[in-house]
Fold this sequence. Notes:
two-stranded antiparallel sheet
Amino acid sequence: MKVLVLYDYPPSPGGLATQGDLLFRGLQEMGVDTHAVHFESAQEKEWYYRWFEPDVVVGVGYWGHVPNLVLHPLRYGARPVPWLVADGYIAKYQEVLNDLPLILVTSNWVKEMYVRDGINGDQIEVLPVGCDTDSFRPFDKNDKKILAVHVKRKDTFENNFYCKDF
């Protein structure tokens, strides 16, 4: 399987970029042949369609990104699968989205919003956003890497907190 992932790449700090990057890195870790490209970079996407010949193009965004995530890949014969969030009313692209065999959304609530606004729920699957468990994991409170020291200074009336380097 070859997957081209369209998102805010390279990732800037933010939700959609993080969502796309976690998907991209997760696919790589699973051994999927995958490449990432910025969802708005038309010329770069065209090159990947021809060179990489992906089986599927997964685009991360919201309904307003349909021209970049769905219409552009379709124009070049690629199979788009949008992975969408909701930002309120889905104002257009209902016909385009209803013609797709699969739409991924980040939660049941997002699915309800798309169905409410005219998208057929039969082709919508919920794929929650994950997290990087190597970066986000519990630490023991005595771990020297994160130990916060509470110091009461004699020369002030305030408590001062700082992180101590070890």
